[in-house]
Amino acid sequence: MKKTILSLLLLALPLGAAEPIKALLITGGCCHDYTKQKLIISQGISKRANVDWTIMHEGGTGRTHRISIYKKKDWIKDFDVVVHNECFGAIGDKAFVESLATAHRDSGVPAVLLHCTMHSYRAADKLTDEWRKLLGVTTVRHQQHVAVEIKNMEPKHPIMQGFGKSWKTPAGELYEIVKIWPHTTVLGQAHGVRTKKDHPCIWVNQYGKARVFGTTIGHHNETMETETYLGYLTRGLLWACDKLDENGKPADGYGPRK
Fold first, then answer.
1. Is residue 255 domain-resident?
2. Does 125 reside within a domain?
């Protein structure tokens, strides 16, 4: 009976269709317009790739909230990828912070890490490196709000195909990267006026079993709404899920829904 039902379901799928990627979006916290950004991210990606969403938006504008799903055992197992767009920098609980990172490391569920996620849980930095190992970079502050010109460092990488040689954001907030961890590959970087140094702002990382895509760009809605941003963000998610071909195109069945 089960085989018959499965066969009928497969027959009902359009030619070339695939099961959607099950994505969890974690968002909330201080300093950003997460109410609008959760729609920009989820709707923008789903217009470009075959992705279904579960969205957890909690914490108001505070810095110490613990997203409720994190308290559940094996919270990560029902998802194909987790997109982190959260800003809870004042949480310094070593065991809690390590549990978030190692959930990805041990399960192999990919992570997509955006903007203030890189400043989240930094109160635990003196106690553990696990969150930083997941991120692939260490950063503790940002520069002023000015447009950022990102140079494409790996134009042949699938994520960066279609990005162009460089891209100047409509608005920006460049994060100062003070450490690049060993398994990180920088894909895009921008020059910091204050530091007079180049800082990675797009990269990939391998953390245990998990593929990781990260970008520090994403403070302003007007930047996140651009075709360039949503394009490389979508490619980053598909790459993390191993659903992006070498030419930067979605794997069969994982492109835009018709």
1. no
2. yes
pLDDT in tens, 22-58: 999 999 999 999 999 999 999 999 999 999 999 999 9
Q: Which two tokens stand for residue 240?
A: 């993390």
Grouping H, G, I as helix, E, B as strand and the rest as coil, residue 49 is coil
CB 120 within 8 A of CB 89: yes
What six digits make up the tokens of 103?
A: 């959930």
Q: What angle do CA 85, 89, 92 make, to 5 degrees?
A: 125
CATH classification of the domain holding 132: 3.40.50.880
Kindly give, in sequence order, each residue whose CB lies less than 8 Å from that of residue 182, ignoring residues fewer than 6 positions away.
Answer: none
In a domain, 118, yes or no: yes
Tens-place pLDDT, residues 125-177: 999 999 999 999 999 888 778 899 999 999 999 999 999 999 999 999 999 99
**Domain encompassing residue 132:** 20-240
User: What does pTM read for this prediction?
Assistant: 0.92
* Residue 159 belongs to a domain: yes
Q: What is the spatial distance between Cα 192 and Cα 5, in angstroms, rounded to a whole number?
A: 58
Do 83 and 25 touch, CB atoms closer than 8 A? yes
Tell me 92's DSSP state. -
Give the number of domains in the chain: 1
The CA distance from 214 to 113, in Å, is: 5
One-letter amino acid of 118: M
